[in-house]
Amino acid sequence: MKIKKAILTGGGRATRLRPITTTINKHLIPLANKPMIFHAIEKAVVAGIQEIFINTNPGETQLQQVVGDGGHWGIRITYFEQTGGPQGIAHVVKCAQKFIGRDPFMFYLSDNIILGSIEGMFKKFLDEKLDCLLAFAKVPDPERFGVPIFSPTGELLDVVEKPAEAPNNFAQTGIYLYGPNVFFKAFDHIKKSQRGEYEISDIHSYLLKNNFKVGWEEVTGWWKDTGKPEDLIATNKLLLDDMRSDDSCFQIHGIVHENAKVGEKVHCGVGSSIGENVVINGPVMIGENCSLEDCVVGPHVTVGSGSTIKKATIKESIIFNNCTIDASVAVQGSIIGDQATIRGAREEGGRFILGDHTLVEI
Length: 362
What we know:
The protein has helices at about 35-45, 60-65, 90-95, 95-100, 120-125, 180-185, 200-210, 230-240; strands at about 5-10, 30, 35, 50-55, 75-80, 105-110, 110-115, 130-140, 145-150, 155-160, 170-180, 215-220, 220-225, 255, 260, 265-270, 275, 280, 285, 290-295, 295, 300-305, 310, 315, 315-320, 325, 330, 335, 340-345, 355, 360. With about 350 residues, the protein is an alpha/beta fold.
């Protein structure tokens, strides 16, 4: 009973990430210079998934254009809308029932980033012949998530959504495995919560209380729900750190001046140029057709294709495509949206969260 199908999330408004998400789907925000949802797709493909169904906001076209039909990964990708408006995460899965049928499947919240493989979860699910497998991670603020309830002997008894006081520091992460028709049986027995949504935790609570075989596994490497700007910056940093110095991701394809100082774990895309008075402290990823002059970049910086950086010092930041930073400014912990511009003469530092096409003069 191999799992070959997966549902991935691609909808939602991500209001906590505005102004970044005012003009871009959250799942397309670049992390380590790769759209966020690509990380989820790649995890799924490595685990053996052959067919992915992605939910989208009504009228969405941007996501489909960027992700495509799955041919890039040798799989098939289909898109669907959550009918009737936002009604919760569990309702997203219900809307995909016609695609899943009676097959086992994975449900993956694409704005969750984990380090390491998920293949071990698939193996445990199959080896133990489970109806459902949940992934938990230790977090400092479990009240923001679904929280498991354990017996004194460590048996999983229940999952409670966003409790006022969490009984432990485990949180339900956004990766779930289900056996044939298990999820949809449970969905027919749950009701909307007080906030008007079908909660994924209620699905698991029903399964646990009705003798379904529910297992769990701790995500021990690293897991992050990218709900806030600081989460995106931290995730970008950890993804860059996780890449090996000999990884094919770090290659110099552009032109580097002989007097430039380029450290280890630096990628420079085709058509990019690194000038004479440039210092790059890896890990740093620079896209294609970029221009860097008289600047210091890194560590933990990603620069999107077509961007220009002059005179600035930039650390721990995400720079989107076609940006221009032309100022003697220290930029740290920032997200600079597509085609945004920072320019000026004053030497001031700061943290910038700029949406697309923004102009800041300092």
